[in-house]
Amino acid sequence: MKATEWKLGMSSCSTGNLDKETFDGYAANGISCMEVSLGNEHSPVDWKNTLALSRDSGVELWSLHLPFYPFETLNIATNDTKLRNRSIEFLTENYIKRGADIGIKTAVIHPSAEPYAENEREELIKVGAESLAELAESAAKCGMRIAVEDLPRTCLGNCSDDIKKLIALNDKLRVCLDTNHLLTEKNVDFIKALGDKIVTLHVSDYDFLNERHWLPYEGKNDWVAIVDALEDVGYAGPFMYEIELKTPNTITRRDLTYADFVENYKACTQKMPYKAFGVPNIDECMKNAYYKTPMI
């Protein structure tokens, strides 16, 4: 599938709300699909109302980002069997089944908490793979698939080798490529390694020093190369932005509008030049840089 055929999508994290204003704003600007994004396990969701807003606006509920914190009570990659089992049950009963009930077909999951010491990673990758395999079976019974997201820093899943191990125990598992998380591997190499396992995206840009969630072309990603690679592996999901409208302190610009995303989407998918209007705030970026110089 050509990139120009990919649907334009945005995470609900753009506003932090699943309200009529957000759905209508997406629809009015041709943003045809949404990821329902839930960071905290206590994030409330009015499932019935969300479905009604989707139907009224015509904005498809493409994916559900499962909650992933607080780590003390939600972690699928842990040797604490009680916590692990509780996390699997909690995600299945409260989010996967309920998301499936309103027609969502893809659940994006963070495969781990953080930080992890290097000497415990391999063991916890095995535990995480077992948890993901179990979740994949539960999701499949509901007509949903699990997409495992690449993560930054010391998280499990911070490279393609990790992701391959994490999805190895169940062929139903798929992958969500987050284009601003990889700190030791290029996105293009990750795409080539995972191929058609990639079924959805989290699109944003960064400085290769830490995750930033900037608009494409505000960071260092080679967007033409990324889009080319996705086309080469047959990617057929949406071009799903995971960026807030509100400006973070790591970059200097005005707050974003839906129109900004539409223009950016056109530039990315048509592989056309795009003039970024955000300027990274170097001092702020260096305060929480995981690497002081890029590793990729």
Characterization of this structure:
By secondary structure, this protein is of the alpha/beta class. The chain has helices at residues 20-28, 47-57, 81-101, 121-141, 160-166, 187-194, 223-232, 258-270, 282-287, and strands spanning 8-11, 33-37, 60-65, 106-109, 145-149, 174-178, 198-202, 239-241, 251-252, 279-280. The protein has an 8-stranded parallel sheet. The protein has a two-stranded antiparallel sheet with strand order 9-10. The chain is globular and about 50 Å long. The model has no long low-confidence stretch (mean pLDDT 97).
Output the keywords:
36% helix; alpha/beta; 8-stranded parallel sheet; 10 strands; globular; 296 residues; 9 helices
Describe this structure in a few short sentences.
The chain has helices at 20-28, 47-57, 81-101, 121-141, 160-166, 187-194, 223-232, 258-270, 282-287; strands at residues 8-11, 33-37, 60-65, 106-109, 145-149, 174-178, 198-202, 239-241, 251-252, 279-280.
Distance between the termini: 28 Å
Give me the side-by-side strand order of the main sheet. Answer: 7-6-5-4-3-2-1-8
Number of helices: 9
- Rg result: 18 Å
- Residue runs with pLDDT of under 50 for 5 or more positions: none
Task: Tally the beta strands.
Answer: 10
Order of helices and strands: EHEHEHEHEHEHEHEEHEH
Major beta sheet summary:
8 strands, parallel
Overall mean pLDDT = 97
Give helix % range: 25-40%
Structural class: alpha/beta
Q: What would you call the shape? A: globular
Instruction: Report the portion of residues in β strands.
Output: 5-15%
Walk me through the topology.
Layout: E1 8-11, H1 20-28, E2 33-37, H2 47-57, E3 60-65, H3 81-101, E4 106-109, H4 121-141, E5 145-149, H5 160-166, E6 174-178, H6 187-194, E7 198-202, H7 223-232, E8 239-241, E9 251-252, H8 258-270, E10 279-280, H9 282-287
Parallel strand pairs: 1-2, 1-8, 2-3, 3-4, 4-5, 5-6, 6-7
Antiparallel strand pairs: 9-10
